Amino acid sequence: MKFAPRSAFDSASGYRLLPMRFRRLPWDETQVLVTSLAGDWLVMPRSDLDRAVAGELQQDDVLFASMEARHLILADPARSTLAPLLSQYRTRKAYLQAGPALHIFVVSLRCHHTCSYCQVSRRPTSETTFDMSGAAGRHAVERLFEWPSDKLTVEFQGGEPLLHFDRIRSLTEAIVERNRSEGRSLRFVIASTLHDLTDDQLAFMREHRFQLSTSLDGPEWLHNANRPRPERDSYRRTIEGIEHGRRALGEDAVSALTTLTARSLTAPREIIDEYRKQGLHSIFLRPLSPYGFARKTQARQGYPITEFLTFYSMALDHILSVNQDGFELEEAYASLLLSQLLTPFSHGYVDLRSPTGAGLGTVVYDYDGQVYPSDEARMLAAMGAHSFAMGRVDEPVAQWLQSPAMQRVLAAGVAEALPTCADCAYVPLCGADPIDHYARQGDPIGHRPTSDFCAKQMGLFDLLLQRWQDGSAADRAVFETWALRQSGGSPAAVPEAPGLEVAA
Ligand code: SF4
């Protein structure tokens, strides 16, 4: 819920309310989370919020100073300004200024796996008509440099992109050559099973400082069940690929994430322990997406979002205990949410932005020359829903931005203006994901009370806030480390965390 500022209202103590939203804490309904326009927050007794709203706070109340510091009240409307609040708002939304930084090149749809939860419409390894052509690649490189961002991340995806490594090589060389006059900061990533890595490929990657991202779903029995191959050797080949990549590119150049099937939900500790065993210091616990083969197998592989949240809570407990044991391991999505809760900075994650990151933070150049505002949009197109295609690689970027697809994305892409989100205490920290809502609910705006996206966001924010409140000092220190690493900040750069609970 939110309170509008009363422009003509001054309390007896001379303060004015600023726009705020609140949420009764599900685990303690006497307490409320109160958030400002820019995402500063306080947890306080509901009775204190009532006093503040009724204009009954006194200047020497501790709560008065806390609410003023978090831009929830304006202490002296005659002399105070909104400049600090607006400055923080700009910082929180800083990702808007540079334009898309993540550019995904889909070099082939071919793949040798038959994963039942595959989000893309993979093709057999022999079907080379699903490879990106040289002409499409050249146009895509031209378009890449029409965007204004100083920092460009170029991510090669598939299918299995290593099956069309010649195109990765030619695109990389063309981008590096063009960048001699552009002077952008470039980062290259390949999302791959890593099964087909060769020394020759790795030498090229080392030259251009590539990073590798792969999927590791857990211990051998789980990984092989989730990611089947006829030879039942998927796990072994993935581990060999990780080691091969590390030897050539360095320990930190290889990262992994896990996709959670119904089978995975039975094994939270085993999945975490596998990451520790492999010396991986980050894990991304991703629930299934409603795209591609995952939709077809949903009845067998899927689960209600409540089961994901139960799993996540157990996994988080185990990750925290692993950290207390001395092995640093972060959960990547928690880090993103904590960076929003505990720092004033913006983050680079496109699915958690408002305005949406689709087309404003990411662009996808598909193998056939079509261009999409997000990976999910191209997956929808592969399923026959083409309404989120922005255009083709031989058309100018300005034309893509004026396309009906982008108009549709933008109309539903500002969380603060969406039904339910507009009144939600978490909205300054949350994001809009119109394409996900279209995929799940058939409408880009969607219906938050029945939305899995919202249930996940609300559930995870609640979980992390509760752990932050009730956890040990050691757990809090782990959370702070994750948040600061994610936001690129340092303790010295954060003089005061934006949130603070006030004791009842
Ligand atoms: S998606 Fe849900 S949690 Fe996020 S702002 Fe909207 S209502 Fe709140």
From TrEMBL:
Residues 97-329 form the Radical SAM core domain. Keywords: Iron, Iron-sulfur, Metal-binding, S-adenosyl-L-methionine. Its cofactor is [4Fe-4S] cluster. The keyword Iron applies. It comes from the Bacteria. SUPFAM superfamilies: Radical SAM enzymes. PROSITE patterns: RADICAL_SAM. This is His-Xaa-Ser system radical SAM maturase HxsB. The lineage of its organism: Bacteria, Pseudomonadati, Pseudomonadota, Gammaproteobacteria, Lysobacterales.
